[in-house]
Amino acid sequence: MHNITVDKGYDVLSPNYPLHYPPNQHYTWRLYSSADTSFVITFLSFVTHNENDFLTVGKGYEVEADNLMYTFSSWIQSGFVGVFEASAMWMEFQTDTVGSAPGFKLRIDRIGEKGELHDM
Questions:
Q1: What is the pLDDT of residues 12-27, one digit of tens each?
Q2: Which residues face 26 on adjacent strands?
Q3: pTM for the model
Q4: Which residues partner with 107 through β-bridges?
Q5: CA 20 to 30 Å from 4, out of 15, 49, 87, 109?
Q6: Is the C-alpha dihedral spanning 12, 15, 3, 83 positive or negative?
Q7: Strand partners of residue 56
Q8: Is the alpha carbon torsion for 44, 48, 51, 52 positive or negative?
């Protein structure tokens, strides 16, 4: 598990990006902010092998199904932006035992109380 404080912009990469990630993997990132803010995730690149290789995103400190907000798999157009209203969130990347793909590169930024972006 990777614990990351996002006070400035931060890039999250799948294993081996931009090369193919290995099969049968499980990675977790916990994202925190030192201020009461929301997170902005920009999908710079996102390609997974199929719907069995996926990235889940949830709010809060604990990785639990009750906190799940979104599941992403297969392909997302570059430049897609998601805003997540939480001062803490988590992301989990899980792959199946067969196949592989380039994976993803995500840019994480935060939005302050007045809606301004910090360190994009």
A1: 999 999 999 999 999 9
A2: 94
A3: 0.86
A4: 11, 42
A5: 49
A6: positive
A7: 71, 92
A8: negative
